[in-house]
């Protein structure tokens, strides 16, 4: 297998390929195939960009038809039929159908673009510079988003100070600390030394932070805190949105309405680059062109995105996730945690983590390497990269789900038994 061009000419910044040293050539549903013809079950899902699986046939047909009819592919932010179709379908069948009222801002094609727009808008509206973010957060790699992100290695790559963010402990970090009360003290105490924020930004489930599901009551209290002190609540649904947690919007389980929502990854439907920022209408204080990007609202992504929404609703994907959640939760509890008392598992929907933080050495790395040898693609996240992240296609066939989980369990047994 020839990997020399990558190793010789591609930048050393490449990362995922180092964990999966093969050349992939095709993919369908939950299965990827490499140049040798070997198949792998994909429990990585493009880090959340492929919620509906590889080459979903429904979405694929819509994309191919649009290409065959010579549809407009690039239009900046001009009016086009695909944009109109997406806006109308998303607003009527998803946003307003769930009782929300958001305008849609088309930003650059990745999640960090959606977060950058959210930050700029919050600071513009509230005329304050500071933002509260949580420890364990990952919000992107451009400078504004990176200032929110807490991973030390990622932050070190900035090369400049990362300012105007106050990081507060996530609710799981210190059991005896009421982190909402802590934030209120920072806001109200004239000796806290902390500027009142324009916004509080969070992921309702920290994914790259180690798979931590933030409690429903805690999310509701943060919403109330924001209302009390005239602070905007931003939810980053880039990775955990689009049905991943069992609800299309991850915050629906808490019965809250954020002021701004950042979305990307699977909103593109087919793995297409696409990102949007949702904002309450009264916050839409942008001047024309004040935030833009050459590839905002790429037309083929809009086609795939609308098809992805149709598939999500027509195929009852949220129900499918909740059904599979019970299977994964039971397997984690009865098969994986039983391997060793030091193993912890946690998750929601089809986003689960197997935590090896109590072990000495890089056990999670050994597990994902062993799993790959056995035909399963999983990644690792969290502090010291000690958590194996399990993230299947949302309608993964039950037999494939079971097979992948069994490969994971056996890989863990193989690694732990050799320690």
UniProtKB/TrEMBL annotation:
Cofactor(s) required for function per UniProt: pyridoxal 5'-phosphate
Gene Ontology MF terms: diaminobutyrate-2-oxoglutarate transaminase activity
Pathway(s) of this molecule: Amine and polyamine biosynthesis; ectoine biosynthesis; L-ectoine from L-aspartate 4-semialdehyde: step 1/3
One Pfam family this sequence matches: Aminotran_3
UniProt-listed PROSITE patterns: AA_TRANSFER_CLASS_3
EC number: 2.6.1.76
Keyword flag Transferase: yes
UniProt keywords, alphabetically: Aminotransferase, Pyridoxal phosphate, Transferase
NCBIfam families per record: dat, ectoine_ectB, PRK09264.1
PANTHER family (alphabetical): DIAMINOBUTYRATE--2-OXOGLUTARATE AMINOTRANSFERASE, DIAMINOBUTYRATE--2-OXOGLUTARATE TRANSAMINASE
Similarity remark: Belongs to the class-III pyridoxal-phosphate-dependent aminotransferase family.
Protein name: Diaminobutyrate--2-oxoglutarate transaminase
Organism per entry: Anaeromassilibacillus senegalensis
Organism classification: Bacteria, Bacillati, Bacillota, Clostridia, Eubacteriales
